[in-house]
Specification:
- This protein is of the alpha/beta class and 547 residues long.
- The protein has three domains: 113 residues, Serine Threonine Protein Phosphatase 5, Tetratricopeptide repeat, CATH 1.25.40.10; 185 residues, no CATH class; 158 residues, Rossmann fold (3-Layer(aba) Sandwich), CATH 3.40.50.
- The strands form two sheets. The protein has a seven-stranded parallel sheet with strand order 3-2-1-4-5-6-7, sandwiched between helices.
- Helix 20 links the parallel strand 11 and strand 12.
- The protein is elongated.
- It starts with a helix and ends in a 15-residue tail after the last helix.
């Protein structure tokens, strides 16, 4: 066995230093050996000494420019360094001398393609940055999406995409604000609901129901109208229970669900003060906000309030949530996201989002996209970062290059909910909130109203759902995915209609469990328990009467 073979044996056994010393001894006294230089380069790569590796590869090729082993090894290194401008000429020189070598010819073609891709990425990134600087957010988005589809490992470019998406969202919100007054609120148009004969907690109670209103004054308070939940619950309470309700929000948003009292005038603030003084039960949504001129601590007790958590940004502040409940002893409602309130379990109830699927009765399950040449994937985030939009869009672009159908994205942002529903109805597949595998373990995730809406529209729906959420809804007709799994999942959906048909067959019936009358009764049970501490419900009590 010669020293070269012995060095390779030592290297294979993991005796790197011994192998290196032996190979260096081959080169003593000015001896040149291409095999020794090549193997020393491999050892240098193993030791992460790239500069030495390049030097050794160069010396090997100076001895024999057509030494194939070094050409292959050096090309591999250059590819990992994104130095295709060096790798391609090296392969071209060898291929010209050895046109019969199919391995080198294929490697040359592959590297030329990679070189073109590298050039494309540079161009997309340069154009995207230029467009972003000019506030041409839609063009910047298109460039960054194409770049990330070619190379997903570009953190700086992903941040640029997120900036472009935020810019599009803000621009669209501004456009929506210009015409929002011409669109009827989705859930609560107060001009139609108001009882002009009454005020305070009877302001939106139908006159014929006044004699039945023997229950609580329930006040909803939130920073904004979250998916229309407060407006719907207020209306249900006023129209279908013995209780009365009002709803305060601090700011109006563009989704246009409808609101009761907006804290934007002195007159409204005075009314809010009166309402608070007459409230029997406070139902906070997302948080307990500051209200000018009043100290809520004087009114709140463990048995007259709860906090109902909606929204991913609240989930991302879970430590504050847990600390608050442990300090106050107040009860909370949670949408089945355990990680959000870990260590405060005894102070939290699990509650699903209210959703009325009967409003979508005309829509049937739609799997017609299997026969289409163009498939539309929808996504309508209110917060691109939280919903994973900056990961989702490049993945869809990458899928578009792998399937025979044309894949297009319907990205809807900054529109009213009614407008967003029209866009959703045009989609074939809908992607809700997605998170990474790491995030789903840390923050948890589950289906929201967005997913329920797309299911009700008959659309194949994808969302991140952790095991805790799925323990409540193991039969959810939603495809669960993390960002890392999304590409394979969509390809699987497109290639296997049977798995989609089986899941979607029960979507309509599954949604019925979230109907407003069912969820409202659960709320009444929770109100009763918080006030009395009694978990036993007497269904004949007027407290639980619905009509």
């Amino acid at each position: 066995m010669n020293n070269i073979d012995e060095g390779e044996r030592l290297f294979a056994e993991g005796r790197i230093k011994e192998a290196e010393e032996l190979l260096l001894s081959v080169l003593e006294n000015g001896n040149d050996c291409k095999e020794a230089y090549n193997n020393l380069a491999i050892i240098s790569i193993q030791e992460n000494n790239i500069e030495n590796a390049i030097d050794y590869f160069t010396k090997a090729l100076e001895i024999d420019p057509f030494y194939k082993t070094t050409v292959l090894n050096y090309t591999d290194l250059l590819k990992t360094m994104d130095k295709l401008e060096i790798a391609v000429p090296l392969l071209e020189t060898f291929a010209k001398r050895n046109p019969q070598d199919k391995e080198i010819q294929q490697l040359l073609e592959d590297n030329k393609l990679l070189s073109k891709i590298s050039d494309d990425i540079i161009k997309y990134n340069e154009d995207g940055t230029k467009f972003l600087g000019n506030n041409e957010f839609e063009k910047a988005k298109e460039c960054y999406v194409k770049s990330l589809a070619l190379n997903d490992n570009q953190p700086g470019i992903r941040k640029g995409l997120l900036l472009a998406l935020d810019g599009i969202l803000k621009d669209n919100i501004c456009e929506t604000a210009k015409h929002i007054t011409n669109i009827r609120p989705k859930f609560f148009a107060k001009e139609e609901e108001i009882n002009t004969k009454r005020n305070l907690f009877l302001k939106y109670v139908p006159e014929e129901l006044i004699p039945d209103k023997t229950g609580l004054n329930i006040l909803f308070i939130s920073d904004f109208e979250v998916a229309g939940n407060q407006a719907r619950m207020m209306k249900l309470i006023n129209n279908h229970t013995t209780h009365k309700s009002r709803n305060i929000i601090l700011k109006k948003d563009y989704l246009n669900y409808g609101e009761d009292i907006l804290l934007n005038t002195e007159e409204n603030l005075n009314e809010v003060h009166e309402l608070i003084s007459e409230t029997d039960f406070f139902h906070f949504v997302r948080l307990i906000p500051d209200i000018p001129g009043i100290n809520l601590d004087q009114y709140l007790r463990k048995n007259n309030c709860l906090i109902d958590y909606f929204g991913s940004e609240i989930t991302n502040n879970k430590d504050k949530v847990v600390d608050f409940h442990r300090e106050t002893g107040f009860f909370g409602l949670n949408k089945c996201i355990h990680e959000m309130y870990k260590d405060a379990e005894s102070l939290m109830y699990h509650f699903s989002t209210m959703f009325d699927s009967s409003e979508y009765s005309k829509f049937e399950t739609d799997l017609s996209f299997y026969d289409k040449q163009e498939i539309v994937i929808g996504h309508s985030p209110t917060s691109p970062k939280i919903k994973g939009t900056h990961y989702i869009l490049p993945i869809i672009e990458r899928i578009n290059n792998k399937v025979k159908q044309k894949i297009t994205t319907n990205l809807t942002m900054g529109k009213t909910n009614s407008e967003a529903m029209l866009e959703k109805a045009k989609c074939d597949i809908y992607i809700d909130c997605l998170c990474t595998a790491e995030d789903i373990e840390g923050a948890g995730s589950g289906a929201s109203q967005n997913s329920y809406e797309s299911l009700a529209l008959g659309k194949v729906t994808i969302c991140s759902m952790d095991n805790f959420y799925l323990s409540f809804y193991p039969d959810a007709p939603i495809f669960s995915s993390t960002i890392e799994e999304l590409e394979d999942l969509i390809l699987n959906i497109l290639n296997n209609p049977d798995i989609v048909t089986g899941k979607m067959n029960k979507a309509k019936s599954w949604l019925k469990q979230f109907s407003p009358n069912i969820i409202m009764k659960k709320y009444l049970q929770i109100y009763h328990y918080v006030k009395t501490g009694d978990q036993v419900v007497n269904s004949f009590d007027s407290f639980f009467k619905t009509f």
